[in-house]
Amino acid sequence: MNSLTPGPLQIDPDWMTGALRRAGALRESRVADMTSKPVGNGLVGDSYRFDLTYEDAEPDAPASVIGKFPAADPDSRRAGSAHLLYLREVSFYRELAHTLAIHTPRPFVAEIDPETDDFILILEDLAPFRQVDQLAGCSLQDAGIVMAEAAALHAPRWEGPALESLDWLVARPARTSATMHERLPPIIRLFADRYRDTLEPEFLALVEKLPEGLACSRDDRSSPAPCSMPTSASTMCCSTSAAGRGRWRRSIGRP
To answer: What is the distance between the alpha carbons of residues 128 and 26, in angstroms, rounded to a whole number?
Structure first.
């Protein structure tokens, strides 16, 4: 890590004060003390909640923020870098989030070192709102919120020519093809073996169609209709935390 992208153990009150002031979240207040603890169960990144104590706290100063960092586990970190996940998440908050209708946490810091893939995201904390349990499933109401958020993610920029100029976003056909045809089938077999007694056959069948659906989404983006993978299947892959975010934004009257 470096001064641009410090790790979770390198962040102190002075650094947090400067970051929040540059983001416009603080004016005169200063972070006097803070504590951190891990949150979530990310597979390729580590997340922490920073609880903040202020000197002369302003009424709208955030009581806590969420920090996201590369995975400490070397194998997980290599996977995140190889699939451009770190670059894409940081770039999404820097370049795309404000152009979409999907509800996202406000980014206070979004930085990445392109040479090392060290990155840091300091985001608005959406607590106490919940993240849906991916294994337990969700209610129909939650599913409806997720589907609406998925539409809000894609619709504003659908077929937008400017997206093709974003190198971090555009799929690289050779890499994508290799991933689908070489890596996905054994992963799907392991998934099916593990969850055969848990998931209904029709849902396992959807997972088996994933390579075909990904190929379709890469090669034909003119309309969602031609893809043989049902919309419901791709919706299942969306971050379930969108359910909590959508309800939270609406409950306090934000657009």
So the answer is: 22
Cα–Cα separations (whole angstroms), residue 136 to 40, 107, 115, 192, 204? 16, 29, 39, 17, 16
Q: What is the pLDDT of residue 220?
A: 62
Span 45-95, pLDDT tens digits: 999 999 999 999 999 999 999 999 999 999 889 888 888 899 999 999 999
Q: What are phi and psi of 107, to 5 degrees?
A: -85, 125
Dihedral, CA of residue 113, residue 23, residue 10 and residue 13, to nearest 10: 170
> 159 with 221: CB under 8 angstroms?
yes
Q: Taking the domain 13-124, which CATH number applies? A: 3.30.200.20
Under the banding of pLDDT at 50, 70 and 90, the label for residue 180 is low
Specify whether the CB–CB gap between 106 and 123 falls below 8 A.
yes
Structure tokens that stand for 61 in this block: 């100063």
Which residue ranges make up each domain of the chain? 13-124, 140-251
The C-alpha atoms of residue 67 and residue 121 are separated, in whole angstroms, by: 5
Give the Å distances, CA to CA, from 89 to 81, 97, 117, 119, 143.
11, 10, 12, 10, 23
The pTM score is: 0.73
Sign of the Cα pseudo-torsion (89, 167, 207, 44, in order):
negative
